[in-house]
Specification:
It is a single chain. With 391 residues, the chain is of the alpha+beta class. It has helices at 3-15, 23-34, 70-77, 114-132, 138-142, 150-158, 206-225, 230-244, 320-323, 334-347, 352-367, and strands at residues 38-44, 50-55, 58-65, 81-83, 88-95, 98-106, 163-165, 169-176, 184-190, 194-202, 251-259, 264-270, 276-279, 282-286, 304-308, 314-318, 375-382. The strands form three sheets. It has a six-stranded antiparallel β-sheet with strand order 3-2-1-6-5-4, with helices on both faces. The chain has a six-stranded antiparallel β-sheet with strand order 7-8-17-16-13-14. Strands 9-10-11-12-15 form a five-stranded antiparallel β-sheet. A hairpin with a 3-residue loop joins β9 and β10 (194-202).
Length: 391
């Protein structure tokens, strides 16, 4: 066993002596394993705009912006950042590709060769945080940079991690306004054949809208887990909405799957804006699919669309709150602006998770005032890697 393996094993053993809510103590155990004199876990907030240290009672001031800071550069670039004299080291904390935040170390003798060993210890710390956050509110409290509405609390509880990546498929999503989100949601799940996904936009705002979205997402999730086809998923979710709400309650959406081996994208459009395709850093346009009625209105399936993706393709699903956002002068954000930003992210090689974060940040800055409608982005990127030996 290598010295690094010894330190990882010691960290995991020592962590077992601490209760789940004592996450700062777990961070301190990682500090010892890394030979640092001080350590803090900086947690990203719900809007992915700031980082704040996790303390025994939640967040510890001061909160720092992601844009324009060394810790923020570590978070956005997913790379180690070092400030000298004395060395302060920022290490990305990611689970798969879900970005939890940054580990900040004050280290007396940091050298480049320390990075590999540190990565293994930080990964062990991430696994400990992820497993223990289910039993405590500390991480959720630290993620708040402002009060979270009850509707937003419910909606965030519905979500999977904001990002997930394998050698073949990346999936990344984000919601705004992060602290008052209502009727928008998304969902995904990896499987042996690829990735299943859904995005929904419920009519209305606040708690009534999030209630509709919750039924829609869980209806589609249940159909996925029961291995029903897309038509059955649409009809069952439509029936569930009609049984629980009046005819004025409905949700638009798109849901389907991306085959990891062939790149075949199969999806159903329930009255939702069409997804956008970028290929070779060029905007190809909307992917067509004749719309079925929104779920909850008693419709039938009009079309199940199929598209063949190529390696490197990015497909962006979004809700109309993105393109219909307006500047203070009343100008729409619009699809052209969204497509241009999507192309820039692909051309720059920006990772999908960071690309959607920058996209929604631009929408919020363009609007300046609080968004009048929910704005949600969900991006798929097809890699078609062959490293696992499958054709």
């Amino acid at each position: 066993m290598s010295p690094c393996d010894d330190r990882v094993a010691a960290l995991l053993r020592a962590a077992g002596a601490h209760p789940p809510d004592d996450l700062p103590a777990i961070v301190d155990l990682a500090r010892v394993a890394l030979g640092a004199t001080a350590a803090r876990m900086l947690v990203a907030d719900y809007g992915l705009t700031s980082l704040c240290a996790l303390g025994p009672s939640g967040s510890e001031a001061p909160r720092q912006r992601i844009e324009g800071t060394l810790a923020g550069r570590c978070f956005t670039a997913d790379e180690i950042v070092v400030a000298a004299d004395p060395p302060v080291v920022y290490l990305p904390m990611t689970d798969g590709s879900e970005r939890l935040g940054v580990l900040e170390l004050t280290h007396p003798t940091w050298a480049e060769e320390d990075a590999d060993a540190a990565a293994e210890i930080v990964q062990a710390l991430v696994l400990l945080v992820v497993s223990r956050r289910r039993y405590t509110d500390l991480v959720h409290q630290t993620r708040r940079s402002q009060p979270l509405s009850m509707a937003a609390e419910m909606q965030w509880a519905l979500l999977p991690p904001l990002a997930c990546s394998t050698d073949r498929i990346s999936a990344s999503g984000i919601l705004e306004p992060a602290y008052a989100i209502g009727g928008d949601s998304f969902d995904y799940a990896q499987s042996a054949t690829g990735l299943d996904f859904a995005i929904v936009d419920a009519v209305g705002h606040g708690l009534p809208a999030v209630s509709i979205a919750a039924v829609a997402i869980n209806g589609l999730r249940n159909a996925r887990r029961e291995r029903h086809d897309l038509e059955r998923a649409y009809l069952d979710t439509d029936a569930a909405l009609r049984s629980q709400f009046t005819r004025s309650a409905y949700a638009t959406g798109q849901f389907g799957s991306l085959d990891r081996r062939t790149g075949e994208l199969t999806w159903l459009n329930a009255g939702h804006p069409l997804p956008l395709l970028v290929r070779d850093a060029t905007f190809i346009g909307e992917l067509p699919c004749h719309p079925s009625l929104p779920m909850g209105l008693g419709g039938t399936v009009s079309e199940i669309a199929v598209a063949a993706l190529q390696p490197g393709d990015r497909v962006l699903f979004y809700t109309d709150g993105v393109t219909e956002s307006r500047s203070p002068e009343g100008e729409l954000f619009g699809m052209d602006r969204l497509a241009d930003l999507l192309v820039r992210g692909a051309a720059d090689g920006t990772a999908p998770a960071e690309s959607v974060r920058r996209l929604v940040t631009t929408v919020v800055e363009y609007n300046r005032d609080p968004l009048g409608d929910d704005a949600t982005l969900f991006m798929l990127e097809y890699h078609a890697s062959t490293t696992d030996g499958t054709p």
